[in-house]
Amino acid sequence: xxxxxxxxxxxxxxxxxxxxxxxxxxxxxxxxxxxxxxxxxxxxxxxxxxxxxxxxxxxxxxxxxxxxxxxxxxxxxxxxxxxxxxxxxxxxxxxxxxxxxxxxxxxxxxxxxxxxxxxxxxxxxxxxxxxxxxxxxxxxxxxxxxxxxxxxxxxxxxxxxxxxxxx
Length: 167
Known about the structure:
Order of helices and strands: HHEHHEHH
């Protein structure tokens, strides 16, 4: 019902956010578009849950979860995407933003929106949480890689004053 549709809308909003970042940051476009594509895959997994719930294959108990948290996150992601389209974003800020999004989803247990009676459904929901954790690792690795690359390119040699050498 509304819980899974809202979670699907959230995954779509995050995918759109990553897609916009990829369009703005041309040098890392492939990275961000891959992230966006994976978020759309997550959306499709949620829609499969929705389908099985509607068909009566799976059932669920109403979760103890504040649904407004997800709807506010959807609105926030949409606003962020519009702002980035208008004002741009640095890679550092984009990575920080994405890390915050993914960590927030895991920490707030977004994937307990549906508390299913079916072990198969719970496996799918747990896999969604695992995907978010994998995104966190990928974002952290990208941040680490870029920092190394920036530091690695900078060969700063100490400047030696001729007066000091003579002394």
